[in-house]
Amino acid sequence: MDLAFTPEEQAFRDEVRTWVQAHLPAQLSHKVHNALRLTREDMQSWAQILGRKGWLAYAWPAQFGGPGWNAVQKHLFEEECALAGAPRIVPFGPVMVAPVIMAFGSPEQQRRFLPGIASGDVWWSQGYSEPGSGSDLASLKTRAERVGDKYIVNGQKTWTTLGQYGDWIFCLVRTDSSGKPQTGISFLLIDMKSPGVSVRPIKLLDGECEVNEVWFDNVEVPAENLVGEENKGWNYAKFLLAHERTNIADVNRAKRELERLKRIAKAEGVWEDMRFRDEIAKLEVDVMALEMLVLRVLSAETSGKQSLDIAGLLKIRGSEIQQRYTELMMLAAGPFSLPFIEETMEAGWQGDHVGAPHCATLASTYFNMRKTTIYGGSNEVKRNIVAQTVLG
Amino acid sequence: MDFDFSDDQTQLRDAVRKWVDKAYNVDQRRRAVAAGGFSASAYQALAELGLCGLYVQYAYGGMNMGPVEGMVVMEELGRGMVLEPLAHTWISTAVLQAFAPEDMKFEWLPRLAAGEALLVLAHHEKGARYNLNTCQTTATPVGSAWHLSGAKSLVPAGDQAHGFLVPAKVNGQLALFLVPRSAGTVTSHAYQAQDGSRLSELQLTDASAHCISADGLAALQLAVDVGAACLCAEAVGLMEYTLAITVEYMNTRKQFGVNIASFQALRHRVADMKMQLELGRSMSYYASLKLHAPAEERSLAVSRAKYQMGCSTRYVGQQAVQLHGGIGVTDEYIVSHCFKRLTQMELSFGDSLHHLGAVSSHMQETAGVFA
Asked: What topology does CATH give the domain A244-391?
């Protein structure tokens, strides 16, 4: 047992750090460090910079063009990117659909789709949730009917994150209604420029349109875009869930944001208030305990010597911590969190602020982060899963 | 970065678990509590397993093992709620090895390692809470030795121990002393603690003593850091056991015609207990892996871990009782004993607020395990 990284791991970290410092545009890290709004171009330009280095596909095995890093290396890469203030990689392409295409897609699909994902040129969206199917995802109703060599898709997806930018969308669709809900679902790749696809942004509580409704009205999808077998889509979606990585805990971002919380607390004069500082201290211990939890999972994955039943805890704890630091930042600013003036949340705003400039986005970020315990399997669903492993 | 246990560590765990299962089951523990909370034969059995000398270097007759091995052993003793204060032997041996003059090491370490002598930390005083530097006991030089006078509280197995590690003030400065038990000048008054273990009040009246270190605060800080790290590991073992018996109960107890394990409101509490157990285990690893770090770093790491452990033990203990329902508050059923022991752990070697204060006042700009 050893807490220190090996010299090789340390050298790897240094290599990543040097490269990120040299290639991450300063205006991007400025936005990330200050929680300013990111545009599509911001997110995609970083993806493409990584793509040119071969690191957007950083979690992929070498046979599909990834660097073939082990779990610890992936973690170190994520940590260096987060601490440097890099935009988060939009996961739908490289993290979510690519592993499914690798595991279940045809060689033709792999040749056709993976390069665009790895380069960051093609923006993917996720079409899972529907208005009537949230936690009960298997009840989904969007229909895909096989007609000749096509599927005709009708229905509606929702909560499609950043779907307004999407080039392609991977969808769970119903291809059979006769049996159990889970057995009639297929995994379909749909070009969002197809006639009949319409995207309607949903304005959220922070004023931003981060998610969308996506409508399908007699959309024709070539049958060759079916991944794997018809009616096996639920298994492929579950496969993704089973391969959820430690990054879901987002502990690296939490470390960065904890540092920002301390800076804000000092600037706002609450650092010397013991009642407030103790709340930060509690969060600091929470973050360290989460980091140790993540490191234990990484170690077990790398050595293969321990089978741990703790991966299900990572999303629950990580999301709670994300909410807590945004909450404390807002509380640190106190009443100066109240103004909602959208132009002051944009990078480059030269005009007046009501409070200190860092106050402008704090409440909006707090409001926005309530999503983290809801999405990706609500924390209540996650607790059901943990309880299942403990209680049977 | 590696959190696997070596084969030797796993064998050590198995050996201790085997002994706990054989010699310290629920009925045996109950008898030990009824007999006063300290069993000389149980302590001797720990010595025969080599555990008393776990930290002791080969030169003094020990096993020369480190904090990870210590953690493994403590997890298993925690699981069995073993009453004998082995952790205090580790505190004593660690402090003597780090601070004592050579002749004192040769006099005490081999006997401590063999289990022939028991040396416990006697640092609590009334009104001091967890503040190590608040001390009314005084030391005066007498030739090459010292005389100590004062009162210490809450001394584990204080009526059984052969000697004590005692902090005392010399001209306003804290020093740490070894006080051998001797009739007349050292008197103890024993009683039981909430968890059934044995404690004593200690009265020193011109008691003969030897100075371990004139830098008493540094030596005492090491003592409580080792003690707190041991407690963290014990707590992990006990929380694991407590969760296991709760799960077993929930899968047996029927209400409304079904096992209570089927109720979602209860299942979510179990998920949260598992969370607290694993966060606690993670920080116990962290504390043990930092025990050899420079003093300031070590103490801060221990404070972080002990704060987490206080939160974890309280949650797991309280919820375990709640999930057992009425039987959870009976003396007959083991879970109430787990709860009391877990509660006592939070209050020992600094409670959660104490350690939160230490974390809070030492926060740096950066954060994280490697910051």
From this structure: Butyryl-CoA Dehydrogenase, subunit A; domain 3 (1.20.140)
pLDDT, tens digit, 9 for 90 and up, residues A22-47: 999 999 999 999 999 999 999 999 99
List the single residue in A277, A293, A390 with the smallest CB-CB distance to B360: A277
Report which of A47, A46, A49, A51 is spatially closest to residue A30, judged by C-alpha positions. A46
Binary contact (B289, A284; C-beta < 8 A): no
Share of chain A above pLDDT 70, in %: 100
Flag if B267 and A387 touch (Cβ within 8 Å).
yes
Which residues have a Cβ under 8 Å from the Cβ of A281 and sit 6 or more positions away?
B356, B359, B360, B363
First to last CA, chain B: 15
Whether B32 is covered by a domain: the verdict is yes
pLDDT of residue A348: 86
What's residue A244's pLDDT?
A: 74
Can you tell me the distance from the alpha carbon of A55 to that of A48, in angstroms, rounded to the nearest whole number? Answer: 9
Q: Given B68, B93, B114, which residue is the final one in a domain?
A: B114
Kind and range of the H or E element at A145? strand A143-147
Distance, in Å, from the CA atom of B289 to the CA atom of B304, rounded to the nearest integer, reads 13
Asked if the model's pLDDT at residue B199 lies above 80, the reply is yes
Same domain (yes/no): B138, B54 = no
Q: What is the ipTM of this complex?
A: 0.96
Print the domain residue range for B109: 7-114
**CB-based contacts of B43-50 (< 8 A; 24+ apart in sequence):** B43/B84, B43/B86, B43/B115, B43/B118, B44/B115, B45/B19, B46/B19, B46/B82, B46/B84, B46/B86, B46/B115, B47/B114, B47/B115, B47/B116, B48/B115, B49/B15, B49/B16, B49/B19
Report chain B residues whose CB lies below 8 A from the CB of A299.
Answer: 1-4
Q: Given pLDDT bands bounded at 50, 70 and 90, which one contains residue A292?
A: very high
Q: How confident is the model over A66-92, as a mean pLDDT?
A: 96
* For range A338-351, the mean pLDDT: 92
- In 3D space, the residue among B269, B250, B261 whose CA is nearest the CA of residue B319 turns out to be B269
What is the DSSP track for A203-237?
A: --TTS---EEEEEEEEEEEEGGGEESSTT-HHHHH
Query: Is there a contact between B356 and A282 if contact means CB atoms under 8 Å apart?
Result: yes
Ramachandran area for residue A251 (φ above 0: left; ψ -120 to 50: alpha; else beta): alpha
Q: What's the sign of the alpha-carbon dihedral B241, B242, B247, B250? A: positive
Measured in angstroms, the CA of B84 and the nearest CA of chain A are apart by 27
**Can you give the pLDDT at residue B322?**
98
Q: Look at residues B236, B368, B233, B3 and name the one whose alpha carbon lies nearest to residue A321.
A: B368
Q: What is the pLDDT averaged over residues B159-165?
A: 97
pLDDT of residue A43: 97
At the top level of CATH, the class of A124-231 is: mainly beta
pLDDT category of residue A241 using cuts at 50, 70 and 90: confident
Nearest CB to A255 within list B6, B278, B367: B367
CATH number of the domain bearing residue B170: 2.40.110.10
What is the dihedral sign for C-alpha A75, A80, A84, A89? negative
Residues B147 and B204: beta-carbon distance below 8 Å: no
pTM listed for this prediction: 0.96
Find chain A residues with C-beta within 8 A of B282's C-beta. Answer: 289, 292-293, 296
Mean pLDDT of the region B126-142: 97
Contact A288 B304 (CB under 8 A): yes
- A277 vs B contacts (CB less than 8 Å): 360, 363
What CATH code is carried by the domain that includes residue B249?
1.20.140.10
Contact with chain A for residue B243, Cβ under 8 A: yes
Minimum Cα–Cα distance from B369: chain A residue = A288
